[in-house]
Design a protein that fits this description.
This protein has about 575 residues and is an alpha+beta fold. The protein folds into three domains: about 220 residues, FAD/NAD(P)-binding domain; about 150 residues, 2-Layer Sandwich (D-Amino Acid Oxidase, Chain A, domain 2); about 30 residues, no CATH class. It is built from 19 helices and 26 strands. It has a seven-stranded mixed sheet with strand order 7-6-17-18-19-16-20. Strands 9-3-2-15-22-21 form a six-stranded mixed sheet, sandwiched between helices. A four-stranded mixed sheet has the order 1-14-11-10. Helix 1 runs parallel beside helix 7 and helix 7 packs across helix 9. The two termini are about 40 Å apart. The chain binds iron/sulfur cluster. Iron/sulfur cluster (SF4) binds next to helix 19.
Length: about 575
């Protein structure tokens, strides 16, 4: 039995992303406001003592694992900090021009009108990693404890299933499972309220949702993966402040997908491609979809003469309103992407994540005021969400992603109707219509599926415009100590070698954007078996989501390991 140090906190935030950083800062200022109101007699009740607040983060620094497009709607940060620009928020550029391209294989149509949800003029192009670093500095100035390299490994429950804290991961365990000379036991951080803001498919949120049935009576969450590169390009190729979104090539009409190109400072462009992880064809490879996207003449022209400088991949939760888990339970709240706070129609989640965190903070103030940390008080989070602009923004687009599950053309018609009727056009239909991505994947025997050659045969990896996964992973600066147990728990590798090989052709080899999964011939038997190169992992969570048998469980590796998305 390992002896673990216990640290007492009042509030513990798991994950230093925009939701939790905004939450922690807002919590500090709401407590101050509460106490001022009590002192001035405007509010009955008593002071809330200064709370001990901590944020734990699995990356080696805040921002290391943060990746997004990103164009930020400033609505939430303005509420959090009206003078955010004066305070030095590191926005990169202001959007000056929007465009929407429909791409066919060889040509393109520049839409005369940009669809309203994709209008971004006046909003900010940012590096979300940089912004989170900056928010973390603000938190530290406010007296909030930030612990990088502290992955949340397990939730701690009391006898009544209330969450009472988090056990962080051990350090210095060898790949044989035995402690090494540098072994350090994880600690137990006890808290009255724990807030899970771990991003898309959070590993503790997954545990919690399953244990307490928080998705019962909800539709399944549906995810997409964004694969992104930063490029330095000649100044004349693409203007700073220009934002392009694309639809069409290379996605087939059954697959949700689209591209982006954002012009940043210093002739850098952010370019990426989103593929819905509810695709049908097991041969789809989101990384290759992105490479193929770059070969389109109109896109290749933007990158001509340029140089790729960084790479990353991350999933986002695109299904929205119907697929929000119950956001509270005794001692715990779920915020940000983990709670489906993302507008799939606008492909925007930063503002929603921050606002969800701020509403969680206001709920926590109420919990300390009444000294009640049970679901009875924390349920006010749900009410606050439904009374806020989050509801006003998410509810009208509640059917957006589901409509794409019937194919692109019906989706475009439905989206138009939904836009005009604020979601009612499909609201007359039964609402149970999101299908979990892994359930949509068809077996290789499915009719009409193109072969890998048909899909990707013409994509040549030239290491100038297009890159293989290993070269890209190098540009994500990924590092994990190789002498540790794999954090990718494949629960039954026999399925990989038999049923999955036959039925789906081992799609993990394709859906992972970092070449972590490979089928290799066993030298003794000749049978092809799964090899897991866990040290390549960029922590995107695609495997946990997309595996058709749901036998891959992503757990946190040793703290500090993973990609380095500084500046992404
Ligand atoms: Fe993403 Fe899973 Fe591959 Fe890691 S192993 S990069 S989480 S798909």
């Amino acid at each position: 039995m390992i002896e673990r140090e216990q640290i007492e906190m009042d509030v513990l935030f798991v994950g230093a992303g925009p939701a939790n950083l905004a939450a922690a800062l807002h919590l500090k200022s709401e407590i101050k406001k509460h106490n001022e109101y009590v002192d001035s007699g405007r509010l009955p009740g008593s002071h809330i003592d200064d709370l001990e607040i901590a944020i734990i983060e699995k990356g080696s620094f805040v921002g290391a694992h943060i990746l997004s497009g990103a164009v930020m709607d400033p609505i939430a940060i303005r509420e959090l900090m009206p003078d955010f620009l004066e305070q030095g928020c590191p926005v990169d550029s202001v959007v000056t021009e929007d465009a929407f391209w429909y791409l066919t294989e060889k040509s393109s149509i520049n839409a005369p009108i940009v669809p309203p949800p994709l209008k971004n003029k006046g909003k900010y192009i940012i590096s979300l990693s940089k912004m989170c670093e900056w928010l973390a500095e603000k938190c530290e100035e406010a007296g909030i404890n930030i612990f990088p390299e502290f992955p949340g490994a397990d939730l701690i429950y009391d006898d009544n299933n209330a969450v009472i804290g988090v056990r962080t991961g051990d350090k210095g365990i060898g790949k044989d499972g035995k402690p090494k000379a540098n072994f350090e036991a994880g600690v137990e951080i006890m808290a009255k309220v724990t807030v899970l803001g771990e991003g898309s498919r959070g590993s503790l949120a997954k545990q919690l949702i399953s244990r307490l049935g928080l998705m019962d009576d909800k539709e399944p969450q549906v995810f997409s993966i964004g694969v992104k590169e930063l490029w330095e390009v000649p100044a004349e190729n693409f203007a700073e402040g220009r934002v392009v979104h694309t639809l069409g090539f290379p996605s087939d009409t059954d697959t949700y997908g689209g591209g982006w190109i954002y012009g940043m400072k210093n002739n850098v462009v952010s370019i990426g491609y989103v593929t819905g992880l509810d695709y049908k064809d097991p041969n789809i490879d989101p990384h290759l979809e992105f490479q193929k996207f770059k070969t389109h003449p109109k896109v290749a022209e933007v990158l001509k003469g340029g140089k790729m400088i960084k790479y990353g991949a991350k999933t986002i939760n695109t299904s929205g309103f119907w697929t929000m888990p119950k956001l509270y339970a005794d001692g715990v709240l779920i915020v940000g992407d983990s709670g489906s706070f993302l507008n799939g129609q606008r492909i925007k989640g930063i503002h929603m994540a921050m606002k969800s965190g701020m509403l969680a903070a206001e709920t926590i103030v109420g919990a300390f005021e009444h000294q009640d940390f049970t679901a009875k008080t924390l349920k006010h989070f749900d009410e606050k969400v439904n009374l806020s602009w989050i509801y006003d923004e998410l509810h009208p687009v509640r059917n957006f992603h589901a409509s794409f599950q019937s194919g692109r053309w019906s989706a475009l018609i439905n989206s138009g109707l939904q836009f005009l009727t604020k979601g009612l056009a499909w609201g007359f239909m039964p609402k149970e219509h999101h299908i979990a991505g892994h359930e949509r994947m068809e077996m290789l025997s499915g009719e009409g599926l193109p072969s890998v050659e048909e899909r990707y045969g013409r994509v040549k990896i030239d290491k100038q415009l297009t890159f293989d996964k290993i070269t890209d992973v190098y540009h994500a600066a990924v590092s994990h100590d190789e002498d540790q147990p794999s954090h990718l728990h494949v629960l039954d590798t026999e399925i990989c070698a038999t049923r999955c090989a036959e039925e789906y052709g081992n799609p993990c080899q394709r859906f992972c954007p970092a070449q972590v999964y490979e089928m290799e011939a066993n030298p003794k038997t000749g049978r092809r078996e799964l090899k897991v190169n866990f040290s390549n992992c960029v922590h995107c969570k695609t495997c946990d989501i997309a595996d058709p048998y749901q036998i891959i469980n992503w757990v946190t590796p040793e703290g500090g390991g993973g990609p380095n998305y500084k500046g992404m």
